[in-house]
Design brief:
Structural class of chain A: alpha/beta
Mean pLDDT of chain A: 92
CATH architecture of the largest domain in chain A: 3-Layer(aba) Sandwich
Largest sheet of chain A: 6 strands, mixed
Oligomer: homodimer
């Protein structure tokens, strides 16, 4: 009866217990340097602190004249202050002259404010005129001390934290890195994740359909999920239908991968070779974490640790495979790249349709979250069965339907896990 | 006075009018094919319709026995139905036999249901026994017609829309593409966007600071924004401080780029060469769209069309540059890749802090949106001046503060434009 009894006798663990067990085996990754041109979406591997102030000089906020404020504190159109323009400074240059009483220096946005001056007045509030062959200005508005000058360190003070470890690098981080001189950026090495598929029913994407066969889609879907969270996906191929050959394939893959995901073969079927693998193999170098989870879909989801590396067995059903990845693999990938508590990312939303399928276990279904009129709303996507994949593309969250006989009614609050796959937002 | 009067005489247009003008000049891009392995985050260039049903055969939803339901409609533990097992079918294979009265065929999850059978009963609800050297099963639960069988086309019917044009490819789209046999995926060509920076105050990222000088950060920030929205950024370099030389640089760049962004030099300063360029140059091949917008920050934001290609002049101030990109360049990039109405992506949120800076024009400031207890909340980030860049990394939205003398108070509703840069969510 092919280990059948062992397969049925598995002990289910709770979702958060499974997550906690997994998180104890997160591999610490080294870090590396990447050029600022190629660091988008990588994760910073150590907290970066400012070595300089920004601005590092007194900077003019606009195009105008650097003046002594006390000379024009009470300037009005009737009683203007007149000053001789003694120099002009393009941005990027500094004046060798000092602003003394009776004088002004013409400066540009971003220029260093010359010594002596303590205020900048904008062009639009002055009038230029010529006197004795020299250019002067008439100031008709009162000027206050410090006006239009960014002080040294106004934006960033030397020593302050710029970017925390684990931060995902976007345009804003890149602007900070560039302005602070990071040509090379310290980032976590990308986790290398192998993807192995099982199932004699699988044919290649390029193959024409055959009776009883389907094209392999989990490999590509999982690779995309891995890349979305910063990993490098390695396609290990399709596993043979033999437990020992599968074991060899897995051990081989782990020589080059930091982690391995196997989809399919974890259930109670006769050819569910992964179920055999997880359930019956153990030893000094291999430790089973769990081979059943109290949830739907994906209850046979399994995980083991081989030579300190995590191996996941996800359902071969595409819907269950997708959800299993987000619940169990995503937190590991993020933790490998410096994110603390990556498994606590749920929020509350109002569900907009009934879901009346009761279930003795928590159910994790694909949902579409919308932000409308200040409210977070979520709807259950159609075609949500574990075997179905068509709705995954519209999912930007996973909705948790708590265990119970009744499901949940429209208008109730539900916990959802947001996903980074855009649907209605860009 | 260096065209000073012309610069001050610019006519401001409203933000939505500027967006509408720009959208009339979106360049239509061709499409290309990319392999399914490398299509993540690209955009589908034409609607894809199903050529096959899914499943394309009657598929078993679990591991069990294919039976005739009418034989076990009333099966109970006291009155079980007994059937002889005449074949077993691994997933991917089909049985040459037919399920006839008194018989059953053992099948696996995903297997084709053999002819004759109209229901599948799970292993767990049967008992195997041997009789006269043959394997039989005892069914103790009632079986209903169609149970555990996915009908042909249950998930996808031939001819239905699979993925719409412009859809961004994520794991869900990839699963659909793979299962439907798309080894090569039709996607829009990536828009090639040149980035040119002006400003004699700029030094390279690797250079040590000098008095009055700052490192160029806008080039890298803009390149990251371009890539975020599917574009290919080309760094054109730093423009000379001469109008005609800048013009030559721009015309050269447009030979290889679909669009060009210039940062800096658009204001009223003496060396604001881009202001000159936009304001004074025109001809058969160049048409100014606008050179001033009624908004803060970034009021001198400009756009022109040269030989049917858009050239944007964004503020050199990093905060204003960032916002200007999101408001005016992002919609164009998305429209080039098939998104309809990409400039209408605002939602409503509750602001959590006062913003009491009145302004005669609408103000667009960096915000952080959080989803908490079913509510969409947004807070104004500190260090939000147009010259500041440190807060950009924490911005996952732009808050629109309407024109008025009072700003806006905590608890009020504001319109926000969500951005795809993660902060609190992954």
């Amino acid at each position: 009866m092919r280990n059948r009894s062992q397969r049925f006798a598995r002990k289910a663990v709770k979702v958060d217990h499974a997550q906690n067990m997994i998180m104890r085996h997160v591999l610490k990754l080294g870090c590396e340097f990447t050029s600022i041109e190629s660091c988008l979406h990588r994760r910073i591997s150590k907290p970066l602190f400012a070595k300089e102030c920004m601005p590092h000089f007194r900077r003019s906020g606009l195009d105008g004249y650097a003046v002594l404020s006390e000379e024009a504190l009470f300037a009005t159109p009737q009683n203007p202050t007149c000053l001789r323009v003694i120099d002009e400074v393009p941005a990027g240059y500094t004046s060798s002259k000092q602003v003394l009483p009776g004088t002004a220096i013409r400066i540009m946005t971003g220029s260093a404010v010359p010594d002596g001056a303590d205020a900048v007045i904008m062009f639009e509030q002055t009038e230029e005129y010529q006197e004795e062959g020299e250019i002067s200005i008439r100031i008709k508005h009162k000027v206050s001390h410090g006006q239009n000058i960014a002080k040294v360190g106004d934006e960033i003070t030397s020593g302050q934290l710029l970017i925390g470890s684990g931060s995902r690098i976007g345009p804003g981080q890149i602007a900070v890195l560039a302005s602070m001189g990071y040509e090379e950026v310290p980032v976590f090495r990308r986790p290398v994740v192998g993807v192995l598929t099982t199932g004699s029913e699988l044919i290649s994407v390029g193959d024409p359909l055959q009776p009883g066969r389907i094209r392999n889609s989990n490999t590509y879907m999982l690779a995309a999920q891995i890349e979305q969270y910063g990993g490098l996906a390695i396609r290990v191929g399709t596993a043979p239908d033999d437990r020992d050959e599968v074991a060899r394939t897995i051990y081989n893959a782990l020589e080059t991968c930091d982690m391995l995901i196997v989809s399919g073969g974890v259930s109670v079927g006769d050819y569910d070779v992964m179920a055999d693998f997880f359930t019956t193999m153990s030893g000094n170098d291999m430790k089973l974490l769990f081979n059943k989870i109290a949830m739907r879909p994906g209850s046979p989801t399994s995980a083991t640790v081989i030579n300190s590396k995590l191996v996941f067995g996800l359902s071969g059903n595409p819907g269950a495979c997708f959800v299993g990845f987000e619940l169990f693999v995503r937190p590991v990938l993020l933790a490998m790249q410096g994110i603390e508590s990556p498994d606590k990312q749920h929020i509350q939303a109002i569900i907009t349709n009934d879901y009346d399928k009761g279930c003795p276990h928590d159910r994790y279904i694909r949902g579409q979250m919308t932000l409308s009129n200040e409210q977070v709303k979520v709807s259950v996507l159609e075609k949500n069965n574990s075997s179905m994949l068509i709705s995954i593309q519209d999912a930007n969250c996973i909705i948790m339907i708590p265990a119970g006989s009744k499901g949940i009614a429209a208008g109730q609050q539900v916990a959802v896990i947001p996903l980074p796959y855009e649907t209605t937002m860009y």
